[in-house]
Each structure stands twice: as C-alpha cells, then as structure tokens.
Design goal:
The protein is mainly alpha-helical. The chain has ten helices and two strands, in the order ααβααβαααααα. It has a two-stranded parallel sheet with strand order 1-2. About 65% of the residues lie in helices and about 0% in strands. It has one domain. Helix 3 packs antiparallel against helix 8 and helix 4 runs antiparallel to helix 6.
C-alpha cells in the first residue's frame, strides 16, 4: 500500500496530461463518428504528383512510439522540460480539435486499389480501414513530431545533449512528416499547417509571453523554472 501511495505521489505531475489525453481521444473519436453536411477538400494539385510509397508506413507507425517515449523520458529525467512539452502538446492538439469541429475537412488522395501482398501495403490498408480521411488539417502527426523533437533538444538531459540523439530526433521528425504524404494520409497543406502550428506553439511555450507567465504564476502543477 505504501508503494502504491508513492507511485501516485510520483505521478502527480502527470495527471493533468493524462486527463487531457483522455479528453483529446474522446473528442477526436466523436468528430470521426459525426457525419457532416459538408467537408472541405484540403488536397491540392501538387499532392497528386507525390508518389505512393508504402515503405513510409514504418516511420508513420513509429510516431506512436516516438511521441510517448520522449515525454515519459523527460518526466523521469527533466520534469521542467516535461511540463513545457505538455503545454506544447496541449496547445496544438486543442487547436486541432477546434479547427476540426469548425472546419470539417477531408482528403481524396488514397489510391482506389493497391497491392496487398507486401507487409507495408497490408499495414497501410489496415490504417486506412481504421482511420478515415477526414479531420486531417493540420497534421497532428507532423505537429507532435516537432513537439517531441523540440522538447528533447531543449531539455537538460544527458540524451538531449547527445549529438547523435539530437540528430536522430531531427531525422525521425522529418521522416515521420514525409511519411504522412507518401502513404497518402495527409496533404502538403496538412503538413504545412502542422509546421506553422508548431512554430506558433513554440513561440508561446518557449517565450516569455503574458499567457505563459500567468500560467506559471497561477497554476502550480505547470510551474516551470526559467
């Protein structure tokens, strides 16, 4: 019982983020299930010139590991960096939900048929079955990849200061971002939107702007040392 209490105490800084993740997943699920009267096509002509490359499903799927492992590592090794990263995640994901609710969007980029003999092709088909081509702008795959990478690069951890890890994180973020367009999950507009949102979020979270100063002063659980 004492061990369990210590675990709960140790995880106290994680509760706000856990609650947000639950909120986000539920909100996204609802948006995916609701049929809208009109969807806005996000695709552009240039998207049609980009080839479909099934092998990019590997970095695409690695995203699910990448955006979890880094926050967990930072929570253990650098709590202040974890708190900054949490704010960064929350900002973009919340705005994504708002945009998806107010501006229903869709893509028509997926090939009508693909060979299902290769392992990568089969994974892509499984992803397409479970994930509709709606609510794609801006790309959360791109946004959260940037968030995880920036959080690691800005941290004071041993791995965050390691040159090879830093380069690996940057390359990973690039590959994940490219994967979204090469397996036809996102358009160039989605990728651009994700990058722009990441830049805005970075300016808010890592700069001394009034809203962040207020949060640091009035919300103890996200207090961050400069």
């Amino acid at each position: 019982m004492q061990r369990l209490k210590r675990v709960f105490i140790y995880l106290k800084d994680a509760y706000p983020m856990i609650a947000f993740v639950i909120f986000y997943l539920l909100s996204f699920r609802i948006l995916e299930k609701v049929n809208r009267i009109k969807y806005y096509n996000i695709g552009i002509k240039l998207d049609e010139k980009i080839p479909f490359i099934p092998a990019f499903v590997i970095p695409y799927c690695f995203w699910f590991v990448y955006i979890i492992v880094i926050p967990v590592y930072l929570y253990i090794k650098d709590i202040n960096s974890y708190k900054r990263a949490s704010l960064y995640y929350v900002f973009g994901c919340t705005l994504f939900i708002v945009i998806s609710a107010l501006y229903p969007n869709i893509l028509y980029l997926r090939p009508s048929s693909i060979d299902n003999t290769g392992i990568c092709n089969k994974i892509v088909l499984d992803i397409w079955k479970s994930d509709t081509p709606t609510n794609v702008f801006p790309s959360i795959h791109v946004y959260n990849s940037v968030v995880a990478t920036v959080a690691m690069l800005k941290s004071n951890t041993k791995l965050g200061k390691n040159r090879y890890i830093r380069v690996s994180c940057i390359v990973t973020a690039i590959l994940i971002s490219l994967s979204t367009i090469f397996i036809k999950q996102h358009s160039l507009m989605d990728v651009t939107g994700g990058l722009v949102l990441a830049i805005i979020g970075y300016k808010l979270v890592y700069s001394k702007v009034p809203i962040i100063q207020w949060l640091r002063k009035n919300r103890p659980y996200i207090t961050i040392n400069n």
